[in-house]
Amino acid sequence: xxxxxxxxxxxxxxxxxxxxxxxxxxxxxxxxxxxxxxxxxxxxxxxxxxxxxxxxxxxxxxxxxxxxxxxxxxxxxxxxxxxxxxxxxxxxxxxxxxxxxxxxxxxxxxxxxxxxxxxxxxxxxxxxxxxxxxxxxxxxxxxxxxxxxxxxxxxxxxxxxxxxxxxxxxxxxxxxxxxxxxxxxxxxxxxxxxxxxxxxxxxxxxxxxxxxxxxxxxxxxxxxxxxxxxxxxxxxxxxxxxxxxxxxxxxxxxxxxxxxxxxxxxxxxxxxxxxxxxxxxxxxxxxxxxxxxxxxxxxxxxxxxxxxxxxxxxxxxxxxxxxxxxxxxxxxxxxxxxxxxxxxxxxxxxxxxxxxxxxxxxxxxxxxxxxxxxxxxxxxxxxxxxxxxxxxxxxxxxxxxxxxxxxxxxxxxxxxx
Length: 417
Fold this sequence. Notes:
Rossmann fold; alpha/beta; 14 helices; 2 domains; 8-stranded mixed sheet; 16 strands; Nucleotidyltransferase, domain 5
């Protein structure tokens, strides 16, 4: 009986070195249909896929194709400069890896890639949209645009520079999230949308990953987004919607660090929610999400105290339902001079959260840029008091912080809500 794997190995062994290399670097031979440039007249190719679905390889091969056709210069844009270089350029599926020796580009300095045929690419970070002013490009590859901190501003600045050649185009590869930029691209008639799943790429993934990670999260909201590449919209029954998260103003009053501690301190424990917020005019601005998961109690206590000093806060607000005096004593053990306000929950999470969500609805609460994990949990928080089936520790800490700042005033030292 024939063994397909053994037959394939034998065929490869029979190839000459030249033919083996040609076969290895023949992308048309290995690519799935979804990884190939879509036909037709389009400006943006939006490739949304799960983790490990082959998005980066598709992006690298698309740029390689452009370079062979001498389309230059090209913009390579990542969330940060480090991610752009480590993933898009030097990664296992990055640009250097997908080229044979004779056509492989060379990294010049920290922000320029040069091919032997003279094609050049500029490496840019979406975290600094001002850097897009001035340069001109004939094409662009933008990676993980759903994670960009200044997504719309960076995207718009890039569009002004995408003006060289006969047909400037761009590829955006990302695990989808319902951000304003993603929604905007989906509504654009010049966008061609292609979707991929993690399991589509099973041939190139470790079996342990498929068995452990994919099997564990298959069918969950997180799995549908991170593995199936599905755009998960806001929950109809959620207190928070993504449109509520505007940028906050300057701090004009008190600042507090709110802590929602876990019952235990093991790797399997709930996270310790740590959120910093400050008064801003009649409302408030959320300044930091310092939440930690799977750490010892003393570790999260030190993190809370560090946040207290980093933001020159007025107090640490801590829920003491689970640990009682032990929770307060942990903080005082780290620094006895930190003012601690103890709070106890007398109502369910949903009821406590409703008046805080109403503040958002009135436009009284803003966020600094980058609070993605907190915003995801807020939008996933449901009437059952959970977020995607898990304890909403970030939500709890946020509720304590904003309740202290906007709904309770200074008042007595112990709060019951």
